Amino acid sequence: MGLLQLLSYFAILLFIVVVTAKMVKIARMPLHLRWDLYPIPHEKGRGSYGGSYFEEVDWWTKPMNFSLISEISAMAKEIILVQSVYHNNRSLWIFSFPFHFGMYCLIGFMVMLVAGAIFQATGVVIGSDSPNTLAVIIFHLTKIFGLVGWVLSIIGGIGLFFSRLFRAEMRNASVISDYTNLLLLLAVFISGLAAAFTVDSNYVALRGFVQSLITLKPAGVLPGAVTVQLWLWAALMIYFPYTHMTHLFGKYFTYHKVRWEDAPNIKGSKIEATVNKALGYKINWSAPHIKTGATWAEAATEETAKDE
Amino acid sequence: MSNKKTSLKDFSQKEGQLVNLDASKFLPLPPPYDKIEDLPTIKPLSESAQEKYECDLDGITAFKFPRPETDEEKKEMIEKFLSGLQKLFDREDNWTFMQPLFLTMEYCAKCQTCSAACPVYKESGGIDIYRPTYRSDILRRLYKKYVKGGGKFFSKISGNDIDVTWRMIARLMELSYRCTICRRCAQTCPIGADNGLVTRELRKIFSQEMGIAVEPLHKKGSVLQLQSGSSTGMTPAAYLDNIEFLEEEVEERVGMKFNWPMDKEGADILLIHNAGEFLAWPENPEAFAIILEKAGISYTLSSELVAYDGVNYGVWYDDVQFAKVALKHLAVAKKLGVKKIVLGECGHAHKALTVIADRVMPGELNVPRESSVTLLRDIIKEGRLNLDKSRNDEYHVTLHDPCNMVRLMGIVEPQREILRAVVNNFREMEPHGVHNYCCGGGSGFAITQDLNFPDWRHALSSRIKMRQILDTYQDIIGPEHKKYVCAPCSNCKGAIRDMFVAYNTFERCNMLYGGLVELIVNAMTDFDKEYIEWEWH
């Protein structure tokens, strides 16, 4: 087994482990105080103008009208169309949208590559003249996702890089890693497009390599351009989990666990039990007005206790 | 020295004032305030104040923080700050906000979409230090360097390094008081990062660890409220005297006597006003007394310490002070045996007790809380008041949306339903509802009246509200039309009052501000006299 294969296994494993560990770490953080921000799309009948259940008298006695469709629709618009950038930063959206949409296509491309590799491993030929219809579809989808993905993400990535460089506000806020992140991504995308245009237009070599990873068999000799592309992919997968690029996953928490998190504390609820537990945590803040070493419950009821 | 770019190296190390505010660079206002010489100015601090207090950020001071003199003091300041920084990321010390803070530290992509949403940054003409990500970037670098494993090494190679100096800490302290925590920036962030939260978390390091807070919020705010009963300094005895006075005043005003139920056990509702109303705008609680009695609502006020003042300044700077006040409010409601607490016209009291307190209360103190706006809307909808909206016809009314009620709670329509029922000449500001702009007095700014901070507020943080109001009334801006800016929030009213004084708006534009209930009572046909007195007060 070659070095590139070993590196690829390592990169994939590291990516999965580190990203999962980070998400588990966030998920296990204590339940925070409510910090909802409106509009919240799942507020049925009210989400469109930013209203909430607080608009009802005795809201705690009424059913919570949760609109899953509105929430999914808002998510789809945000994820696919990068809606908030469209509405609030249109000149950046011109690049941000193709950049992100291109990468979604590349995720589709990878899924097609893996599917094609699995088919190939079972003896099905992937190609436009394959007798297997599904294999033909996979062949074409791989090419479409690949081409659209490479082109859009490169256009978007270059635009974002130069926006960061030339727009004063962005430049003032940027550090070296903000540029290197984009450069690494661009290197991966450009190398992918270059390999596809020069030596691997039907992704035969790339699919073969993925097949070798799946079947744990040695890969054949790869064209130079494909090798370069794979080294860059591995580097990206190793680097990615340590950067803000994991917002791909982190956005679940920022939206669903903070901004749109509006579950009230109802008597006897799980939230009540969690809050009671948190009130038992010790406070170590040391300003004079804080009862350092006491529990949150003791410190917060200090004044109430004095009056009783 | 350009204000468009301020390096973090300068922020940490440069001696003297970092940024000079130049009013000619601020965005111009519409007529009749389109001439710079007609606008309020930012007065420089006196020489003695400059000598005494740290003001090296932009020549303004909110904290009135005396500069450390000895090396020991400077060293201690740095140590305490770093110790507070660690606690922000500790799951017990900061269980209250650790998760959202961590997410903001990790995921900002620095796209600057938030910048255009920030009224202070935009109105200043783009002063770099007021950029919403500026203070967040400092905290992020500190977090990466001092909290994350291997931080010192990785900070250097990624270009995220930062020097912690006493100067940087002092400037950061003041910088945490140049953001109203309106959270418009967070609303536009594609990732869900929250620079408003960062402002509040920074204030927590100063207050909860270093014992440094802005005086009107802490010493004369939450501390005074817990000790004497109200942040106004009004004791229970003084409060009861005040109520007696209000009872007489309302009788004089409308020619009828109304009850002020006090400490009535078993009432349906405990009504809590912002105590500032009793002193500055008594017509507001008086209007509540009229409406609730006429509508036959069972309610009570409380004369217990803290419970007659709905403010909770902790919501802006300190979780522990916040919890102390919130639990006191809830404990009194529990003792009275009311079915629910209803909050008067005070935005931050709404959010504090209804939303945020939801997760600091032990189960036994879980008394339901709601807004008075929804109750008033239902009273009107059910036809329990005799209304004639033409009684408000001489006023051109616009609505200021308090951030805490709309963007942070989602109460958007009820106040509009009320206005549509009691006013014919209503016009919206743009943008409004959840996309509104802060009055400029948010997060404690309205009550910070020391030295030249109010000048800064009028010139910058309130500027966008001034712009919106002027734009709304541009076709009738002259003094021949009476214009009423309805602001159902004590804090917003305070900021708008001060802004109108600074811009001489009543004289120049015949523009007054007030609450929502005053317009309701003014539309009631039970009284011959007008309820709203069209004079500056």
Explain what this protein looks like in three dimensions.
- The complex is a heterodimer of chains A (308) and B (537).
- Chain A is an all-alpha fold and 308 residues long.
- Chain A has two domains: 3-31 and 90-243, Fumarate Reductase Cytochrome B subunit (Up-down Bundle), CATH 1.20.950.20; 270-307, no CATH class.
- In chain A, 65% of the residues lie in helices and 0% in strands.
- Chain A has helices at residues 3-27, 68-81, 83-88, 90-121, 133-166, 168-173, 176-198, 204-215, 224-239, 247-259, 270-278, 296-300, 302-307.
- In chain B, helix 3 packs across helix 10 (195-209) and helix 18 (372-381) packs across helix 19.
- The longest helix of chain B is centred in the middle third of the chain and has 19 residues, at 236-254.
- Chain B is globular.
- The model of chain B has no long low-confidence stretch (mean pLDDT 96).
Contiguous uncertain segments of 5+ residues of chain A:
none
What's the overall average pLDDT of chain B, rounded?
Answer: 96
Mean pLDDT of chain A: 95
Number of helices of chain A: 13
Spatial order of strands in the largest sheet of chain B:
2-1-3-4
Q: What's the total count of β strands of chain A?
A: 0
- CATH secondary-structure class of the largest domain in chain A: Mainly Alpha
Number of helices of chain B: 24
The CA-CA distance between the termini of chain B, in Å, is 43 Å
* Overall tally of domains of chain B: 3
Q: Globular, elongated, flat, extended or rod-shaped: what is the shape of chain A? A: elongated
CATH superfamily of the largest domain in chain A: Transmembrane di-heme cytochromes, Chain C
Please give the structural blueprint.
The complex is a heterodimer of chains A (308) and B (537).
Chain A: H1 3-27, H2 68-81, H3 83-88, H4 90-121, H5 133-166, H6 168-173, H7 176-198, H8 204-215, H9 224-239, H10 247-259, H11 270-278, H12 296-300, H13 302-307
Helix pairs in contact in A: 1-9, 4-5, 4-8, 5-7, 7-9
Chain B: H1 8-13, H2 47-52, H3 71-88, H4 98-107, H5 119-123, H6 132-147, H7 151-158, H8 166-175, H9 184-188, H10 195-209, H11 218-228, H12 236-254, E1 269-272, H13 276-280, H14 283-294, E2 299-300, H15 314-317, H16 319-336, E3 340-343, H17 347-355, E4 369-371, H18 372-381, E5 395-399, H19 414-422, E6 426-427, H20 453-461, H21 463-472, E7 482-486, H22 490-503, H23 505-509, E8 511-514, H24 517-522
Helix pairs in contact in B: 3-10, 6-7, 6-10, 11-16, 18-19, 20-22
